[in-house]
Amino acid sequence: MGNPKEPYPVKLFVALLLNPEDLLASVEEDLIGLFGSIDSSSRIIPWGISDYYGKEMGPGLLRRFVSISPLTSSARLPEIKLETQAMEEKYQRIRGEEKGRRMIIDPG
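Request: output the structure for the sequence above.
Response:
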């Protein structure tokens, strides 16, 4: 029988879905402040897979993937998800009583 031990550190990556693109620099700065430096990022990719988020976020959604350095404990993933949800809330659009995300931040 094995003994429980701390899992190996993991590479944190984040999938961003956003509209408009001008939010990207601010969001990436916030990610750096919370989790560490961005050591790799994808090009910005137009999101055309689904219109599921269109009503909330509008047309012309963009996707980008970033990875973070240093490695982190996988046990932190629930905490990281809560922090990214707070970021989504920080940038949300508010029109009267209606609120809507302008970005989705999915860490993994």
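The CA atoms of residues 7 and 75 lie 8 Å apart.
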